[in-house]
Amino acid sequence: MPARVIYWFRTDLRLHDSPALKAALDLDPEALYPVWTWDPHYVYHAKVGPNRWQFLLDCQSAVSEGLSQINPESRLIVLRESPLTILPKLFKAWRISHLVFEKDTDSYARKRDDEILAKAGEAGVECIVKYGRTLWDSDEIVGINNGPTMTTMQLQKAGQKLGPPPRPIPTPSSIPPPGDLSLKDVAQDQPGPEYFSADQNQSNRTAEDSTYHSGLRGPEGDFSVPTMEELRMSATTPHRGGEKIALEILDRIVRDKEYTATFSKPDTAPTAFEPASTCLLSPHMHFGSISCRKFYWDVLDVVNEWEKSGKKATEPPCSLTGQLFFRDMYFAAQAGVGTYFGQTLHNPKVRYIPWHLPSKHQPNPDDILKSLSIKGTYHVDSKEAEEWFIKWREGRTGFPWIDAIMVQLKTEGWIHHLARHAVACFLTRGGCYIDWERGAEVFEEWLLDHEISCNAGNWQWLSCTAFFSQYMRIYSPIAFPQKTDKEGKYVRHYIPQLKDFPEKYIYEPWKCPIADQRAAGCIIGKDYPKPMFDWKERKEACIRGMKAAFEAGYHGSDVEVVKGNARDVLQEKFKDNIESFADATSNPGASERKGKDDFESRPTTSKSSKMPAKRGSGQVTLDTMFARKKAKPEDECNDI
DNA sequence: ATAGAGTTGCTCGC
DNA sequence: GCGAGCAACTCTAT
């Protein structure tokens, strides 16, 4: 019996180097249905901003065109229904013998795919699943490494045992047509109310999403790729998706042999834009519009040639191939840790820190609102932390370097890796002391290249909760960008209010004399906000907090954390240490500290930060904070 | 056991 | 521009 195959596209929107697609074609099928299922989980429950939606639709359209170029009868068949319900119906309607797809090790995907495999089994449909998203099969890496890979060395060693990643498979020269596309007796199952009521992307829509309203086949009845209009979204990014664009970028990179062979990630400038200092292939890697193995081998061929001519090439982890190893490391870390990889709670690899604004993953819902307020320590009121978080998200912190990055992230969906470091460090251990999961959620929504494994892993890295632990190394929002952009071109581009600001004060505009502010047409506190806190003061407080949490040594799967006691235990256990530490360090810098007028509204008085903390006295609670706010309204007017 | 390395810190002094 | 010092964590190789 000739095979009749559904090729299910998910993380692999390309035709070159697709091991799963090759496996489907190797069946020599009489019919091949290239299918995309419109998963309501992704439409409503995953955070996906307009820019990433556009990129996905670009990639789908490109695959569809690519298929049609190989065989005019072929194209991407988009079915507007959950795979869990539509695929079993298709098995019958199209008399399917095989279901083929690329392996996905994300936790939601694993669960979904297990269900699909079971349903296919019931229907007598044979399934073929091939890894193709990473250099090596992440599950095999985990097996060889005896657990999740937490260093690139572990990844590379395990990879060595598996042998070099396979060379890329060429784009197929022929593809069978799909068979009969009629859907007799197949009715559309629309998403239930539980999806609409929990729409994570509502704020990005101008009206209710309508992608399901026109039935299984879409408005033209032709299974076409949905549009941004149907999603009720509009994108702002200049970066566009699709296999052709991705291959052109890679080709341009490897044609520049010196750039390719001597690439050193830490030396690339996060302040560079138009063009950026790195390749911008990460969104394509996310959607599969470029194969990471093609990237790997195209680069390695250039490197080998470069070295053959006696010239020195860079090596992992800094080189381009090293970047791919990090990606595989995070994938294998997630594959090994499992469902809880993206959170602290229940995650044995992630260190517990009593962050402000704990994420939604807490043992008791009340814990999310819980705040500690010991004066002179890293603790602040949760209301204040909430304000910091909102300002960070919206790019209104008053630190131009941080704000410019957040503006670029929101509008363009891509920022340089080191820019991600800067804002992630600032939000967590290097400023706000806010839960990394809160920041990761913002990245999840706005990044074109959002990959749960890499995003969560990098947030763990930057917050010093896993992968990396040197919490003394904190990025300065002033000194760091000056290394590559003394003039502040980047800041001037993304924060136009500051475009004529004096170079001397571009990263700390609150220090600029008022006459110069007027001359630059930007009054700090009016046209651009004052800094939301004294960064050096916050940095020191964060280090004290990290030190205490590291001494406690809790991790996400420890019983105290799972039971929800860790925060209280830690507070009790380290209250004395923290305060004595504060005693010893709070005075030296006091004389250099600027007056309170230089900063945005501060619920705690400036006096309190200069004075050594006295045990058990003068705690700032919600009530006293609001009392102060009421009593001193002028403090609230700093940014007017 | 101990030393050294680890993708990318900052400040200061030369 | 470079190196030392800051004060410090974790894993790996020996």
TrEMBL record:
Biased composition range(s): Basic and acidic residues: 591-601
UniProt region (Disordered), positions on chain: 154-223, 580-640
GO cellular component term of the entry, any: nucleus
A Pfam family matched in the record: DNA_photolyase
Domain Photolyase/cryptochrome alpha/beta: from-to ranges: 3-135
Reported cofactor(s): FAD
Co-factor note (free text): Binds 1 FAD per subunit.
Biased composition (Pro residues): 163-179
Biological-process GO terms, alphabetical: circadian regulation of gene expression; entrainment of circadian clock by photoperiod
Alphabetic keyword roster: FAD, Flavoprotein
InterPro entries: Crypto/Photolyase_FAD-like_sf, Crypto/Photolyase_N_sf, Cryptochr/Photolyase_FAD-bd, Cryptochrome/DNA_photolyase_1, DNA_photolyase_N, Rossmann-like_a/b/a_fold
GO MF annotations in UniProt: deoxyribodipyrimidine photo-lyase activity; DNA binding; FAD binding
Annotated FAD binding sites: T278, C279, L280, L281, S282
Family affiliation: Belongs to the DNA photolyase class-1 family.
Listed name of the protein: Photolyase/cryptochrome alpha/beta domain-containing protein
Organism name: Orbilia blumenaviensis
